[in-house]
Amino acid sequence: MGLDGGFLKFTRLEPRHEPVEERIKHFNEFIAIYSDTEGREQASRCMDCGIPFCQHQCPLHNTMPDTQQYVSDGDWESAWRVLDSTNSFPEITGRICPAPCEEGCTLGLHRDAVSIKAIEKKIAEVAFSRGYVTPQPAAASTGCSVAVVGSGPAGLAAAQQLARMGHAVTVYEKMDKPGGLLRYGIPDFKLGKKVVDRRLDQLVREGVRFVLSTRVTGTDGETLEPGVHDDAESTISIAALQAKYDAVVLALGAEVPRDLKLPGRELSGIHFALDFLIAQNRVNSGGGVNPVQVRGKHVVVIGGGETASDCIGTANRLGAASVTQ
User: Fold this and answer.
1) 3-state DSSP of the chain
2) CA 79 to CA 119: how far, in whole Å?
3) Using CA atoms, how far apart are residues 162 and 300, in angstroms rounded to an integer?
4) What does the pLDDT read at residue 224?
5) Cβ-contact 217, 236 below 8 angstroms
């Protein structure tokens, strides 16, 4: 148990959020990180259940009770080692994961659940600031080569693990910068791109090679589905990759939007979400103009998921007169 009776002594503390009237003026992250003391107190609320349902709810099966115990003890390095053993990018999941672990937290049956996601983010940021996160190049090469198609979270995680095993890894990405939806899609106010670049730097130091603006094709001349963005200046076929590498990993993501064939769909002013979000990511990084102009306009967002939320937050920051979901 993090602290004997810690869940009785401390209540759940949400990380500080910048006030709405301030955060809609910029695209920076607006959720604060726990202080060391706050992190330790929140971790001490863990009851170290006999059956850690939080761990079973987590797609990565992070060992939450162990990390909470180390944080409660003030042993941040051990907490990082445990977290890093199951989660390739906790600094990213600690920002954008929907946290099903907290839904499974036993404490949540009668009190507020342990703030596992915020603690994870805190552990990761402590690890980066104190130098616990370092490149981990393989001790020896296997002599095998692997091509990874796609540089989103799945592709990057695969590349990281394969490189550390000693394989020569090359990641192919059709956009001009790596990161997939981490870079082009998720708004900066949820995930600052410096966070992504910091991790990419580690991968490069571990030997991962990136080939950008290059689209991998199945057959010559095939085209992408409507709504899929593409910065490709060259193409390479799957057959060519299979001939060049010992293995190929497909981590393509799911970019094809679901259209609604309804009366009036052909009218102007109707856009797919990523047309709006990717363009704004580019603007925020210093390039281009968002072709979807919403300032002073009444915006309607169709959908109720994360992408819809991203569009709402972006439209509000760009000065929409109103936003209706």
Assistant:
1) CCCCCHHHHCCCCCCCECCHHHHCCCCCCCECCCCHHHHHHHHCCCCCCCCCHHHHHCCCCCCHHHHHHHHHHCCHHHHHHHHHCCCCCHHHHHHHCCCHHHHHCHHHHCCCCCCHHHHHHHHHHHHHHCCCCCCCCCCCCCCCEEEEECCCHHHHHHHHHHHHCCCEEEEECCCCCCCHHHCCCCCCCCCCHHHHHHHHHHHHHCCCEEECCEEEECCCCCCCCCCCCCCCCEEEEHHHHHHHCCEEEECCCCCCCCCCCCCCCCCCCCCCHHHHHHHHHHHHCCCCCCCCCCECCEEECCCCCHHHHHHHHHHHHCCECEEEC
2) 10
3) 43
4) 84
5) yes
114-130: per-residue pLDDT in tens?
999 999 999 999 999 99
Q: Which of 46-50, 193-197, 220-224, 272-276 has the lowest mean pLDDT?
A: 220-224
Alpha-carbon span 205 to 216, nearest angstrom: 25
What is the residue whose two structure tokens read 């593409």?
Answer: 230
Q: Does position 220 have pLDDT exceeding 80, yes or no?
A: no
Sign of the dihedral defined by the CA atoms of residues 306, 211, 197, 68, in that order? positive
Phi, psi of 264 (to 5 degrees): 95, 0
- Its pTM stands at 0.93
